[in-house]
Amino acid sequence: MNRCREFESVLNNEQYQKFCELKAKNSTNELDKTVWNVMNVLFEQDPKQKSNKLLQYLGFDKSQISKEIDEQLEKTTEEKKKTIETTVIESEDIDKLIQRALMVANFEAAVKCCLQAGRMVFFY
Fold first, then answer.
1. Domain limits of the chain?
2. Disulfide-capable partner of 33 in 23, 27, 76, 116 (CB 3.0 to 4.6 Å)?
3. pTM summary value
C-alpha cells in the first residue's frame, strides 16, 4: 500500500524523472537499470536535450561523428586528387557519413558530404 501511495504522489507531482532515477538506483539487475535510465531520458522536457541524451545513450556522439566526417572528407579530397578509382568506395563511405551526420542532426556536415560527393539532387 505504501508503494501505491508513493507512486500516486509521483503522478500528482509530475516527478517522473526523479522516480525513474530512484528506480534505476535501486535496481538489482542491469536490464532494469537500463530500462529506468531510458525512461528517465524519455521524460526529459526539453526536446533538444531529450534528443541529445537519447543519442548519447545509444552511443552516438555528435562531436565524434563530426570529427570522423571532417577526417573522412579530408582523406577523400586527398585521394580524389591522386586517383579517380576511389569514387566507388567514396560513394559508399559518403552515404554512411551522410546518414550518421543526419542521425545526430549535424546538417552542416551532411551538406559538406553531399557537396564533396557532388550530390546536388539531395538539396531539392
1. 2-57, 62-123
2. 27
3. 0.54
